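Data availability (excerpt). The following record was deposited with the supplementary files.
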Amino acid sequence: FLFHLLPFSYQRLHRFGQQFRLSLQARQEAIRDLVRSYLLANPDVIVEALEILEERQKAQASLDQAAVLRQRLPELRDDPQTPSFGPEGADVAIVEFFDYRCTYCRQVVAPLAELLRSDGRVRIVYKELPILGPDSVVAARAALAAHRQGAYRAFHAALMARRGSFDDAAIAAVATELGLDAARLRADMERPEIAAQIERNRALARELGIRGPPAFVLGTELVPGAVDLATMRRLVAKARQR
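Predicted structure:
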């Protein structure tokens, strides 16, 4: 008896399964049509949803960036190969990522110099980030080579003030003007350690999400773009409060 009943039960179950799938598919299509009609009638909902998504993504990116900053602070502030100026006991370090061919980087030279002059508890750390072509790389290599002769700050200022290209002749002229050993500078520019230092700066900038110079790490905050003296002082005060 059971043997004769099995085919019948299986057929009924099969039909029931097909009907259930069709019913489920119909419900899904009905829901899709309903949602589509609602969105067409209320397009502002899509804009609102995208704005919420964007804000969430920005918040998450900020959290990720803050985590990287905290992790990389020793490399950012205390790398012995990176030029820095200011008192050893400074309570705020300003790390600048810059390119000598960047117009906006030149705009912050005077504010940074004034801040360094007027605030005895600030130290500035210079991270070479040459991304604007071969001349930028030449200038960065030359500045780091000048650092080996104890003349980074003067060389940095001279390059920032210079207009035109940074070819070999221009670099040699700056070195001679500052009384440096031009031949030694040229040789030091080719050192693999200097190339490696620049590459480390680039990797660090990518990890921090820096899209271009200038960019500053001030305390544990990343500040993109050029800022004036008043803004810089406000950011320093904020870092001290933290």
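Summary of structural features: The longest strand covers residues 92-98.
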